[in-house]
Design brief:
Length: 164
Amino acid sequence: MTYRSFGSVLAYAVMAMTLAGCTSFSPVYGDAASGRDMSAVRFHFAWPDTHLEQIIFNRLKLAFPGPALPGDPTLDIAASTSTPQGSMSDAYAVARPVNVRVEASVTIVDGEETIFEATRFTDTAYQGGKLTPTDIASAAAARETAAKSTADALRAAILAGYGR
C-alpha cells in the first residue's frame, strides 16, 4: 500500500468518524422518545364515549404507560368522524373512493384548569359502492386506521406541547 492510498483511506476514516459523531438516532416510541422519562408523564384517562375514542385512548395508554397518581391530570378525548365531499378519483364508474375524516381533540385538565388542548385529524378513503357487507367492513376499517393515525398525531402534539 502506498502512502497516497494510505492517506486517502485515513482521510475517509476520519471523515466517517466525524460524520458519525454529528448524527444521532433517537427512538420515536418508548420511554426515551422525547428525551425525558415518559413514565414521569402520567395521566388519568377519562372513559371513552365511542369506539373511535377507545382506539385513541388505547394508543395513548401505550404511549404514556406510567400509573396515575392522585394529583395527576386527566386526559380526555373527543373524537368524531365525517365524510368530506369530493373524491380523489372518478376513474371507475363503480367502487368510487369514499373519503373519511377522523378528527379528535385532546384536553388535559388539572382540577378545573385546562392545561393543554390540541386537535388533530386524519383523512383517508376506501372504495365504496361494493356489496353491502364489504362496504360496511371497508368503512369501519378506514375509520379505525384513521383513528390510530390521529392518536399518533395527538401523541406527538402532547409530547411537543405539554410541559409539567
